[in-house]
Specification:
69% helix
Length: 285
């Protein structure tokens, strides 16, 4: 009916907006596409397959529309921009030039683009050659490959704050000493000794609480999957496919722990489903 059609329109619209904020929300559309294909096969209603296809087309098309608008208003033709393949080349670098964790940002992309005078085709060609070299290196050094991808995975997924403190706005300097310490200095200033004990004591329970929340979400989700014998409803299947897609994506792409918070957030309803099932069974008994 009308309400169902309106729901699909809202779904597509918000996916387009999400894509404009961060292009890797395409992973979510792929996960949704798998769910819809399985639903279409199960119910012999193949119209559902069209929804993720339409969403993909409109997501990618929205970029062309926005570019066309900017070009029309400015009278300047916009170039191709930084090739996305450079992020793969950076994400697979065996040695991070800024001594960060494996696969983390080290300015390789913008430095390469600048080196070739912002020529997207030349930049892309060099990045692809670098990827081939990196893959050959890992194939010839399997232990190094194991260490690299293990450290990359751990550094991406084991920060329960997902760099939310680090990602705080820097434009306006925090006015208090405590906030300056949290957002900028990472050390306690000597002139606030009276709060030192409170501050140091508070950080440990905050970190512990964040760890507990993330661990609880993941454990409850895993238990729900086995509780249902892998027979998941559409949303649970989507959320888990989205998580798996994100894990694979960030093993290849440039990574940071702040990039993966959305995958954990999408698991919250799945964790709640298990608690709801347990609660309803207790009520029946």
């Amino acid at each position: 009916g009308f309400k169902k059609s309106l729901s699909w329109l809202w779904c597509i619209l918000f996916f387009i907006l999400a894509y404009q904020l961060k292009s890797n929300y395409q992973i979510a559309v792929l996960a949704l596409g798998v769910v819809f294909i399985l639903h279409a096969i199960k119910n012999h209603d193949y119209w559902f397959i069209a929804i993720p296809i339409i969403t993909f087309v409109l997501m990618l098309g929205s970029n062309k529309v926005i570019t066309a608008v900017y070009e029309t208003e400015s009278g300047i033709q916009i170039n191709k921009g930084l090739p996305m393949v450079t992020y793969v080349a950076m994400g697979l670098e065996p040695h991070n030039s800024q001594h960060r964790s494996p696969g983390w940002y080290d300015a390789y992309t913008i430095n390469l683009f600048s080196k070739y005078h912002f020529n997207a085709d030349k930049t892309s060609k060099v990045a692809k050659e670098k990827i081939k070299s990196e893959l050959n290196y890992y194939m010839n050094n399997p232990q190094r490959a194991k260490d690299f991808f293990t450290k990359k995975f751990i550094s991406t997924w084991t920060d329960p704050t997902f760099e939310t403190v680090w990602s705080a706005p820097y434009a306006k300097k925090p006015q208090t000493k405590i906030l300056q310490n949290i957002f900028q200095n990472n050390r306690l200033p000597w002139d606030v000794k009276h709060v030192a004990k409170w501050y140091c004591g508070l950080m440990k329970p905050i970190v512990a609480w964040c760890n507990f929340i993330v661990a609880a979400i993941l454990i409850l989700t895993a238990v729900f999957v086995f509780y249902r014998n892998l027979k998941l409803n559409s949303y649970a299947l989507f959320a888990i496919l989205y998580l798996l897609g994100g894990m694979i994506f960030h093993l290849i792409w440039e990574t940071k722990s702040q990039y993966v918070i959305q995958y954990i957030i999408c698991l919250i309803p799945v964790a709640a489903m298990f608690l709801g099932k347990v609660g309803s069974e207790k009520d029946r008994t």
